[in-house]
Design a protein that fits this description.
The chain has about 260 residues and is of the alpha/beta class. The chain has one domain: Rossmann fold, CATH 3.40.50.1820. Helix content is about 30%, strand content about 20%. The chain has an 8-stranded mixed beta sheet, with helices on both faces. Strand 1 and strand 2 form a beta hairpin. The longest helix is centred in the last third of the chain and has 18 residues. The radius of gyration is 17 Å and the shape is globular. About 50% of the residues are buried.
């Protein structure tokens, strides 16, 4: 994919959600082509306790150059706020795309979400809990939080199996033994159904932070209810940060673009 960044309009730090903790912002990358254009929302990683928008700036520029409205959004982190705050924030960003996005060329009927690591968890949760009242923000009443395609990079789809002490303490606020139902709700695996959109899962075979088994198990569950694809990367750069490595960036970008072009 080629990039001509000067032709792209970048709108930074647009407020999209007020919370008790802080105002959340997003960056929107508007393609040169007039809309309506498909949109892709990028959700950053960081183990639920760190990270910020900007991690996917390179991908956002590349997708905008290909005619997508690309958006990177913030969400609340632990210990600032516990589950399901981050999920509600991601849904608010989807609903912003539907409600305010047309001003930036968004087609509200063609929205995908892409997430890495903890962002993969949140992207997948948004996809499997579309319009679930318990997780809906109040900012955009009447707007749907449904997405039309999901891409997960090294996602944490079973939080109990990942069993990270910091995330348990600061984000989920407990342990799988103490509150198994809460961990189930924080995990996309097991919540998929026939309304789940087409999904692509990509994972590095050498990932030591999130076991590739997470993607393999979620792919098996998704395949029973929707169109699902799984790509296990091998070779140079096939670790947890593969979406951002020079050795795997273009391959991952092209695989994602082909999938989204087909489904949007």
């Amino acid at each position: 994919m080629s990039r001509e960044a000067p032709r792209i309009s970048v709108h930074r730090d647009l407020p999209f959600r007020e919370t008790d903790e802080r105002t959340l912002h997003l960056d929107a990358y508007e393609p040169p082509e007039s809309g309506p254009n498909p949109a892709v929302l990028f959700v950053h990683g960081g183990g639920f306790v760190s990270g910020d928008k900007g991690q996917f700036a390179r991908q956002a520029l590349d997708f905008a150059d290909e005619g997508y409205v690309a958006v990177e959004s913030q969400y609340r982190l632990g210990p600032e706020a516990s589950f399901p705050a981050a999920l509600v924030d991601v849904k608010a960003a989807v609903e912003w795309l539907r409600s305010e996005g047309p001003d930036y060329g968004v087609d509200p009927d063609r929205i995908a979400v892409v997430g890495h690591s903890a962002g993969g968890n949140l992207a997948a949760l948004a996809a499997v809990t579309a319009d679930e009242p318990a997780f809906e923000p109040e900012r955009y009443p009447g707007a749907s939080s449904a997405v039309d395609a999901l891409v997960g990079y090294a996602g944490i789809y079973d939080v109990a199996a990942w069993d990270d002490p910091a995330a348990n303490r600061e984000y989920v606020r407990g342990t799988p033994a103490e509150d198994p139902e809460r961990f189930d709700l924080a995990s996309p695996l097991g919540q998929e159904d026939v309304t789940t959109p087409p999904s692509l899962l990509v994972h590095g075979a050498d990932d030591e932070a999130v076991d590739p088994d997470q993607s393999e198990r979620f792919h098996a569950a998704l395949s029973a209810v929707t169109e699902a694809e799984l790509e296990l990367l091998s070779g140079d750069g096939a670790d947890h940060l593969f979406p951002h490595h020079a050795a795997t960036y273009e391959r991952t970008l092209e695989r994602t673009a082909d999938f989204l072009d087909e489904h949007l």
